[in-house]
Each structure stands twice: as structure tokens, then as C-alpha cells.
Amino acid sequence: xxxxxxxxxxxxxxxxxxxxxxxxxxxxxxxxxxxxxxxxxxxxxxxxxxxxxxxxxxxxxxxxxxxxxxxxxxxxxxxxxxxxxxxxxxxxxxxxxxxxxxxxxxxxxxxxxxxxxxxxxxxxxxxxxxxxxxxxxxxxxxxxxxxxxxxxxxxxxxxxxxxxxxxxxxxxxxxxxxxxxxxxxx
Length: 186
What we know:
Layout: H1 18-21, H2 27-45, H3 53-68, H4 81-116, H5 122-133, H6 154-171
Helix pairs in contact: 2-4, 3-4, 4-5
């Protein structure tokens, strides 16, 4: 059996508690993390999480508190696992509903813009078409540039440069400098 020894770096302070070791979380992140943890423990133990009416009421009150004033930090340690699990489920459902509503709102706006493309005023038609062209997926006005990278050896690059210089040299013409005097500036 191999003995593993941790490589402890000198002069690196260790956190006094496990709580100090965690990064700071927003209330939403902490609720989601606690919900996942409660669910995982329940799955490991094989015990279902069954929140009662009191747990649901606590979770609803917490959700209202979070939505009404985001500056208030919640002490989530005071609540039982069932309340946290129910609250995490509420947050997940709320976010899913919000995403669905935003998709519906985007579809509504696009439909209204399409309707405005038939407007008799040319300014309104052009403005609607411009906005439609900026929609993700349409991207009519998005500027794209393409870069092709060609791998070559130094010898190939030198040969290509010499060929280019030779072609340019063949296109040059010899000229003779002639000074032209202007009668007015004589």
C-alpha cells in the first residue's frame, strides 16, 4: 500500500473554518447549492424529501424576501432541509418560466417588427428591417472576417518572397528624371 503525503506549502495560511474556504455565494447560488446537496443526500440515503405545509410556507416567504429586496442577506442555516429543497425547486421553476417568457417576448417583438415592414412610411419600414437584421440568427449586418492560416517552412516562405520580388522587379520601368521649369517660377 502506498502512503500519500500532502504537499503543504510553507507560509500559506489555512482557513480557520470550512466556511471561510468557500467562495462567497449570492443567495440564489447558495439556495441552488443547498437544494442540490439536500437532494444528493436524500438520494444516497434512499429517503424522499417530503416538505409539509410549514416548509412550503417558509420557502414561499423566503422567495418573496429574495425577490423583494436583494440587498438583504438570508441566513439559510435556520431552515430545515425540506424547506431548502422546496425553495430550490421554486427557484428552478421560476427561472424556467422566466426563460420561456423571455423567448415568448422575443417572438412577440419579432412578429411586431415583421408587421411593421409593411408600413406605408418608408422610415418605419427601414427601421423595422434594420432591427430585424440585427436579430440573432438573422445577422444581416454582422461583419465577419475570415483568416486562413497556412503553415510553411522557412525555405518555402523565402522562395515565395523571392518569387514575389522577382515578379515586382519585372514590372518596374526605368525612368529618366527630367526637370521641368515653369515659366512663372523661373
